C-alpha cells in the first residue's frame, strides 16, 4: 500500500510538511503506518497526549484542520526548517516555525515547533509533536485551540 517506501526519513518529514501546507489531512494520515502513533507530550492536563493507529490519527488530523480553518487564519509557510539526522537511521528531529496570517487584519502569527519522527519502511511509526496549546491557539486563533480541546472529548481514551 505504501508508495513512499523508498523515501528517507528526511524526505518523509518534508512530504508531511508539504501535505500540511495543502491542508491535506488524508495525505498526512497516509504517511503513518497502520499502527503508527502520534504523541503530543505538551498537551495540557485532561487532553489526550497519545493517539494510536492510522485511522484514529486520520480522524484527529481531519478534525483539527476542519476546526482550525473555521477561523480567519491561514497557513502561509513553514520557516527556518532544520532537519537533524541522528545516529538512529530511522529517526529525524525537525525544528521550524509555522506562520499564519489573519485574512481580515493581515497580521502574521508565528509558532515554533520541534518534532521527532521515527520512520520505518517509508512510514511514520512514531511522531512526537512538541507544541503547546498556547502555540496552537496563537497560530490558528481560538478555533485552533477549540479544535484541540474537542479532541479530548472526541478521543477521551487516547
3D architecture notes:
With 158 residues, the protein is an alpha+beta fold. 34% of the residues lie in helices and 36% in strands. The chain contains five helices and six strands; from the N terminus they run ααββαββββαα. It has helices spanning 9-21, 25-29, 54-68, 133-140, 142-154, and strands spanning 32-39, 50-52, 73-85, 91-102, 108-120, 123-130. Strands 2-1-6-5-4-3 form a six-stranded mixed beta sheet. The two termini are 26 Å apart. The mean pLDDT is 84.
Write the layout of secondary structure elements.
Layout: H1 9-21, H2 25-29, E1 32-39, E2 50-52, H3 54-68, E3 73-85, E4 91-102, E5 108-120, E6 123-130, H4 133-140, H5 142-154
Parallel strand pairs: 1-6
Antiparallel strand pairs: 1-2, 3-4, 4-5, 5-6
Based on the model shown, name its key terms.
single chain, 36% strand, 158 residues, 6 strands, 6-stranded mixed sheet, alpha+beta, 34% helix
Structure described in brief:
Helices cover 34% and strands 36% of the residues. The protein is α+β, with helices and mostly antiparallel strands and 158 residues long. Helix 3 (54-68) packs antiparallel against helix 5 (142-154) and helix 4 crosses helix 5 (142-154).
Order of helices and strands: HHEEHEEEEHH
Biggest sheet character: 6 strands, mixed
β content, as a range?
35-45%
- Mean pLDDT value: 84
- Secondary structure: helix percent: 25-40%
Q: Total number of helical segments?
A: 5
Alpha-carbon distance between the two ends = 26 Å
Strand order in space, largest sheet = 2-1-6-5-4-3
Low-confidence parts, pLDDT < 50 over ≥5 residues? none
**Radius of gyration, in angstroms, nearest whole number:** 15 Å
The global form is globular
| Helix-strand category | alpha+beta
- The tally of beta strands, per DSSP, is 6
